Amino acid sequence: MSNKVYSIDCDFGSFGGKILLSKFENDKMTLEEVHRFFFNSYKN
Fold it and tell me: CA angle, 34 as apex, 31 and 36 as ends, to 5°?
């Protein structure tokens, strides 16, 4: 029987970011990008 552990990771940058899904199973880690977004910059 294998143990599976999932986590959701957020990476925020200056102009956008991404949401990642991490999966740990059988001493291996996989990382999958599930969403990417951009920030709107406004100047006054």
Answer: 115
**How far is CA 34 from each of CA 6, 26, 30, 43, rounded to the nearest angstrom?**
13, 22, 13, 30
Please list the helix, strand and coil fractions of the chain in percent, rounded to the nearest 5, in that order: 0, 70, 30
- pLDDT tens column, 13-34: 888 999 999 999 988 999 999 9
Cα–Cα distance for residue pair 11/15, rounded to 1 Å = 11
Q: What is the spatial distance between Cα 15 and Cα 32, in angstroms, rounded to a whole number?
A: 21
Query: Which of 9, 6, 29, 30 lies closest to 19 in space, CA to CA?
Result: 9
Q: Distance (Å, rounded) from C-alpha 22 to C-alpha 11? A: 13
